[in-house]
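2024-03-11 09:14:02 INFO receiving multi-entity request
2024-03-11 09:14:02 INFO entity count = two
2024-03-11 09:14:03 INFO echoing inputs for audit
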Amino acid sequence: MGIPTVTITTDKFLFTSKTLAMTDGLPSLSLVAVKHPLELLTKSEIEAKADGAFNDIMKAATDPKTSVSPPKKSTATAQKVYPAETICYKGSIEDINNYFFEKGWATGIPIIPPTKASVARMLTGTRRSPDEVLWVIPPRGGHLTVELAAIHAVMAGARPEYMPVIIAIIEAMREDACDWRSAVTTTPKWPVIVLNGPIIKELDIAYDTGTGGPGYKPNNAIGFTIGLIVNIVGGLKYPTPNMAPIGMGSEFVPAVMAENEDGIPESWEPLHVEMGFKKTDNVVSVKICRGFNLLGENGQSMVDMLSGYAKTLGWCRTPFDASEMFLIVPPQAAGLLAREGWTKNKIREYLWENARAPIKYWKRTYPKNAMTATLQNTEFCKKYGPITPDTPVPPVDSPEKWKFLVTGGPSSHAFYYQGAQGRMVSKLITK
Amino acid sequence: MTPHETGQNCLNVLDWEVLNPEGVKLTEEVRINPHPASLIGKTIVLTWNGKPNGDVFLNRVGELLLSQAKIGKLIKLWEVFPNLIRTYSLPRSSELARAVSTQRPDLAINSTCD
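2024-03-11 09:21:47 INFO inference complete, emitting structure
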């Protein structure tokens, strides 16, 4: 487009801004830092910060160096993405774990050292070529080859037969629609991973009580592999460039669940079928999420229960977001809902109409933010009238953004993951 | 007791031949668009990403650009395209970039503050 830019950030976020700029090949991007923060300051305090930064903004805007910046290769061009470098190390298993951690090759949880032999064994689990680049992972921009995925699978204690699942997850996460790059900024987020199809039982993936939790080797070895990959190859490290004020365990080991296909009501389609696949396909679905909570309101009927869900869900996220919300419904609750005639679409419509909160309580959104402006020009206003402070608005921008998974053990409680940027992406698992 | 049972295995010094798990980073530098030598008479677009008070900061920068830098025209993109204030995603960021280009500015100043 040929338009020069100056980007203003606060000093606390400068390293993150520089890292992302470097990943995009823009090490010379004109950045101006002002002292953190701007939020919750008075108008005069903010204007004083603008006054103080103005000389730097002018300097960056008219910097002659930026007009002569030649395109050049990075210093890493001498390195090859494949094969991975071999490292000789002498020491105990504790020593080598400490060495990996100090090098930034571990997240704090002990790993199994990825020897050449163990990686070669792991690669027997896939027919993909080890030199194939699967993903250039933000924010660091590390090149993930099939070999490198196998290295991390060894480190996480995975088995060769998990490799096709691991690769399918990567193929989902690398999609622009999944939007991992936008997600990994300032709040803790992680991929929530769901398996469907015969592979669940073939690999003994847990899908009943506690699925997604500790105690299940395939679920957690696959999750840990993905956690290592995005943290080490993707460089998603605290305290920079990842600026989330607090971290979460799911960033180490993302939850890997399987749909409880034995417990899905007959009138409900499994998740992967809703995502466009055949019932017999082996499919992985990934949604980038943040936050997990219980929907625990009980009642005398399923309408009471849904009403309880709606009360919580109306307040669970800033309104009218384009990203999905992800509901987890145990088979018992799903069965009771289905018995009373609640299809997935009927529940979606119910939540669309009832899971709402008045827009005035979202101070970042109303009255001057884009969400309000977007709302004023949508079908939503045609149906419900102009936006006023008391207009109840849902946390999603359309009913189909409510996604459902039937899984877990006996319970009438449901749960939800708060969806972050991007959409749910599903991929076929090919062996 | 075996070495495993006593934990001695954890302390055994071994020669390891392991593979580096970091992954190589290869980035080609992109040419930065030439910046103007002066802002006098130029058209400047300000973009605000919806973060709290970023608009207040940019409003003041706009005042200074007009009064001190003598720019020709100031465009606050959030007033022209209010639906693009909060993008926070790859597809919407592309929309925002296209919206900036429709204004044919000489420079865009973006606030990503928090």
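2024-03-11 09:21:48 INFO post-check: The first helix of chain B runs from residue 3 to 6.
2024-03-11 09:21:48 INFO post-check: The two ends of chain B are 59 Å apart (CA to CA).
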